[in-house]
């Protein structure tokens, strides 16, 4: 399902790109001194290289997060070749990139804060220009280069762009993510080009083969110039004598890139310009499981329809959505306790050997691990008698070498444990094994048939996308506002907001006994208490007659529906049946903070709550956590513009349910400037009394 979904997005973007490049013809490639491009101008503000092969501008990485990037115009998913601010995306409104009068090209966020700069202030810079090579260059009137993006690679090299002593590639954190990940392609201190996993807990090189000396890997450590690059024909050469050729070598008209992918593998790609797709024409690590850090501590990388992570029996995944966090034991191994060993054949955990001995018996090896409390497992190779006691278990993988076996230490007291069997839970670490091998179409030169296949699958996908559009459009346009929408309409919405539900007006009317129990009244509507059929207490906010377009209401709901934090009021659903609009949220017992603090001052009924300092502290921390979440942790950053005691609700334990944004933004129409700043507002709540 997810895959299919991704495909649609790619095709959609490709349609847009085709439309763009066709309609715009000869776009400008130069940004003159004193000029700027703004994020809102989207298509108008893109710099395009003279041949049209590269574009530079604001690149959307999340609903409200943009980077300044250079991308391949002709690739279907607008593959990014370079990013200025990969770890600090800017807001979708009010951000701009400007070649300032002082000579520096800067990227500033909506509030004017400079998040990135070429640091060329004080130079006579005259223009920023996107060249045909994909290089973004700041130069003076005479054409002298003062700064160029080729000196600041991110995860991709273009033809003639070098990896050097000072410039390394750093992978992305995940597929499609702009953020830096843990993999690096760099020259080490002995002048050798390496691939390294540089994670929070461990770091190690995995390419070239770390067990071999440099001469066995056909490299040289003598040349300290530390320079490597590839040319348009697809021939890579480096000062350490690393040399490789693309499988379609020689074709100078093909666009190429060398990318350190998020899965830690280094791949050379060629673009099939007609279909907008990339083909792998060389790959550094043939077996993806040989890449380090993929499955985390204790995790084991296996192949089942592509590389897959799993845990040994008795271990469970730490975080099933992020396998780099690995597995954890469901038992303890205490020093001095009785332990036994469980056997895992054809398996190895690379590295972290306490020491290495060859030619010893199995029992000797076993005893070495038994007597040393630091030893968690040992690897033993029958025949050669090689013994590897392990101090820590990382980089696990199944091996093709049949005689390699890992023996895991576990307490004999641990019942029901059968670690001799790997526990496969079938979780795929979103890696694509097909990517790991060189595309056969290029190897065998059978491009014509392949192209036809792409062409037809492209057509098929376009057809499917259109069908989906028609169906979804139908649901939205014809069913959304009709009471009779019933089940079909619900499903339409549930496609959009996964665990977030649409309620019917009757349902909410029943739940609130005909909107009898009003608990608060605010500028944008009244709030009623109710109980759902499943017993959950809810607060239902009736938004006043609408000031806002239906699409705005929905797009805001889609943001709100995804917010989920302990200290934010959870929104469970909504109802939109003309003329009614209601929001359903969890009911928070203790009312708002202002009542707890200033209680009695305004002559309203005294609830008798007096807050001890401990609770006050807890509330302050809770509110801070909620704000931190909105500002940094959710993908679509949200600026809360109305934090005040009235908007902070207290639950039964006086945990704050903080900034339940007051005048429910979906209802109110605040002044545009404010709206620009707040990407969207969180949980409209029962609070705004
Ligand atoms: C500009 O200077 C800042 C501060 O020294 C530095 O962090 C940043 O990497 C520099 N940017 C470029 C593109 O050189
Ligand atoms: C090194 O080069 C030799 C001869 O070309 C080749 O047989 C060998 O496989 C290469 N070794 C590696 C590790 O690439
Ligand atoms: C070192 O590498 C550079 C770049 O690849 C090359 O031009 C140079 O001739 C090499 N030097 C030696 C001594 O091999
Ligand atoms: C790559 O191609 C060049 C010719 O351009 C050739 O000299 C070289 O041996 C090839 N290298 C490999 C690794 O095949
Ligand atoms: C632009 O791309 C086309 C198609 O891939 C290629 O033929 C052409 O040589 C490219 N132009 C430049 C300047 O790279
Ligand atoms: C390996 O480690 C064990 C336990 O720490 C020690 O007894 C043994 O002598 C070591 N062997 C070598 C060759 O260092």
Automatic annotation (TrEMBL):
It is an enzyme of class 2 (transferase). GO terms for cellular component: membrane. It comes from the Eukaryota. It is a single-pass type I membrane protein. It is found in: Membrane. Residues 22-151 form the Bulb-type lectin domain. GO terms for biological process: recognition of pollen; response to other organism. Residues 659-671, 678-689 have a biased composition (Low complexity). The keyword Transcription regulation does not apply. Residues 1-23 form the signal peptide. Its EC number is 2.7.11.1. Residues 652-689 are annotated as: Disordered. Residues 335-411 form the Apple domain. The chain crosses the membrane at residues 453-477. CDD domains: B_lectin, PAN_AP_plant. The keyword Calcium does not apply. Residues 513-689 form the Protein kinase domain. GO terms for molecular function: ATP binding; protein serine/threonine kinase activity. It catalyses: L-seryl-[protein] + ATP = O-phospho-L-seryl-[protein] + ADP + H(+); L-threonyl-[protein] + ATP = O-phospho-L-threonyl-[protein] + ADP + H(+). Its main location: membrane. Keywords: ATP-binding, Disulfide bond, EGF-like domain, Glycoprotein, Kinase, Membrane, Nucleotide-binding, Receptor, Serine/threonine-protein kinase, Signal, Transferase, Transmembrane, Transmembrane helix. This is non-specific serine/threonine protein kinase. The lineage of its organism: Eukaryota, Viridiplantae, Streptophyta, Embryophyta, Tracheophyta.
